[in-house]
Structure formats: structure tokens, C-alpha cells
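Translate sequence into C-alpha cells.
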Amino acid sequence: MSDFKGKLIVFSAPSGSGKTTIVRHLLNQEEFGLEFSISATSREARGKEINGKDYYFISADEFKQKIKADEFLEWEEVYINNFYGTLKTEVERIWAKGKHVIFDIDVAGGLRIKRKFPDRTLAVFVKPPDMNELIIRLKQRGEETPEKIAMRVAKAPTEMATAPQFDTIILNDDLATALKDAEGLVANFLKK
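Result follows.
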């Protein structure tokens, strides 16, 4: 990895918790010097997602080849043949620019990054107010089939159980408060 001792800021949560909204807000705070880690995935693009901006979209076969070649910092088969992961070259690319890396990533991947870089990582779990609100948020997205939503909801209790393993938890029941909390956490972490 690069000589720059950049930091890693991980936001993880069940789908629909608001982690993407929080990460996008933090990216707009220029004083933090953050750049988004673009994950690789084997899933199809949704809506207006762009390859190389939202994700690196690759086939499941290509993903498996990269796993064998040890090209990932972390990876997870989130659903059958539906892989997500962080390419080592992505973190190197951002650190080479003298920036800190921010992740919007599943809980298993977030915890793997924390284990690999314990002193350089802030791992934040974003907690939804409750399961009913999570379901409402997933439906309001209008991006997925009822079956996909049901899969995400079924997975949420397991993901919620990992919250204590993170450095801190942000309750996202009021977005303005959650954004302020996130700003404070990141500002304090980057000062260390």
C-alpha cells in the first residue's frame, strides 16, 4: 500500500438505514479530504448507476478470478453469486492522492477492514429506528422487487446484531442529527 498514512472510515448498516445518504454528505465536507471507495460488485447496475463511479460492475466469474488472485482487501458473497468487495488498487489509488478513504459497505466487509487496519479505521454502524421504518425506506426507493426487499429485511436482524463490534453507532431516526453526529465523529477521528 501507499506511503501516505491515510485513514479508513467505514459506514455499515442494513440496507435502508441511510448510510449512503450520510456518506454522500460527508464527501461534500471538503475539509475532511475524503474520497469514496468504489466497491466492485457482480450485481447488475440499478437505475442510473454508472460503472467506475457508483461501482465497478464485473461478472461473477471475473470476481471469482480476482478473489483467487488475492486482489481484494475484503469481499463478501452477500447473496448467491452476488459479490461485493474492495479492490486493493482502489484504496491505493485514493491514498496516492493524499486522501482518506470512506466506505459505504456491508457489515461483514466493514468489520474485515477494521480488523486489517485497526488503528487507521473508524468503523461506524448506522442503525435504523426500527424494522418497520427500514421496510418503508426500502419500498420508497422503488429500485427493487418485493423478493429482493424481503431478502434484505430477512438479513437485517443478523446485521443489526453486529452493531456492538463497531467503534460507534449512529441512530438514524432524524437525518439532520445523524449527519451532525457523523461529522463530529469523522472530525475527531481525523485529528488523531
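Note: The radius of gyration is 16 Å.
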